[in-house]
Each structure stands twice: as structure tokens, then as C-alpha cells.
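Example S7 (C-alpha cells).
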């Protein structure tokens, strides 16, 4: 009996480790490198069309972009379009029940903001032409910023 229990525990541990590795493999793609996560996330599936929030002018005025993490499990804007080479001011807030979505990271620009109790945080950066991923710390909330 003891041998059977040990074998069952070993097989269970291997199954759990395999599942963890599989999930990590699925989440290892980087949208900035052209890998598409698809529309599996409810917030991304609900919004098929990109939202253009770039409000800056070509003469160098700052573009203001607003993003909010929702308690439903995604950002209110899973895709954003701005003008490349024009400064962006990103304003970020989060619903109190948005869990890990209260954090927003854009690695390429050193952006790492946490919105506590719905407060608005701000970061400024100037993107060059390209596609940049934004995400929460656990990579569960995801979006793309297109600089065109």
C-alpha cells in the first residue's frame, strides 16, 4: 500500500510540474517580437478593434493615453495606437478588484506603475516605431501599444 501511495504522489507531482511548464510556455511569447497571444483573454476577445488614443500633434506635443485595469480581468484598452517619435503621457488606474492588473509594466520604457485604491499613476516616454507589450506583473492582463 505504501509503495502505491508513493507512486501516486510521484505521478501527481510530475503532472503538476508538466502543467506549470506548459502554462509558462504559453505565456512566454512576447508581442513586441511579433508573437500573437490570440483572443483567448476575455478582455481581448471583447474588443476586436484597436483603440486609437494618440492625441498629440506631429509638432511634438505630448500624447495622452488613458488605460484602466478592470475587475473583469483585462485592461479597458487591449490595443493602443500612438504616433512614433512623439512623447506619450500614460495615465493608468485600476479597479480595486482588478487583482494583479493593478500593476502595469512596459519593459522597453522602464514603466512599472501600481494603482492602489483606484488612484491614477502617470509615466512619460517617447516610443519609436514598433509594437510594445504592456502587461501586469503576472502577465495575466496584456495589451499592445502600436507606435506608427
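Recovered sequence:
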Amino acid at each position: 500500500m505504501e509503495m502505491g501511495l508513493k507512486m501516486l504522489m510521484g505521478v501527481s507531482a510530475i503532472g503538476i510540474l508538466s502543467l506549470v511548464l506548459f502554462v509558462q510556455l504559453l505565456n512566454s511569447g512576447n508581442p513586441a517580437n511579433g508573437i500573437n497571444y490570440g483572443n483567448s483573454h476575455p478582455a481581448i476577445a471583447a474588443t476586436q478593434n484597436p483603440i486609437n488614443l494618440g492625441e498629440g500633434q506631429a509638432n511634438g506635443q505630448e500624447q495622452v493615453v488613458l488605460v484602466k485595469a478592470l475587475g473583469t480581468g483585462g485592461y479597458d484598452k487591449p490595443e493602443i495606437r500612438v504616433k512614433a517619435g512623439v512623447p506619450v503621457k500614460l495615465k493608468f488606474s485600476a479597479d480595486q478588484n482588478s487583482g494583479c492588473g493593478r500593476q502595469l509594466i512596459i519593459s522597453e520604457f522602464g514603466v512599472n506603475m501600481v494603482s492602489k485604491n483606484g488612484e491614477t499613476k502617470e509615466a512619460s516616454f517617447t516610443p519609436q516605431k514598433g509594437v510594445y507589450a504592456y502587461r501586469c506583473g503576472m502577465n495575466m492582463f496584456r495589451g499592445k501599444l502600436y507606435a506608427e
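Notes on this example. Residues 17-59 have pLDDT under 50 and may be disordered.
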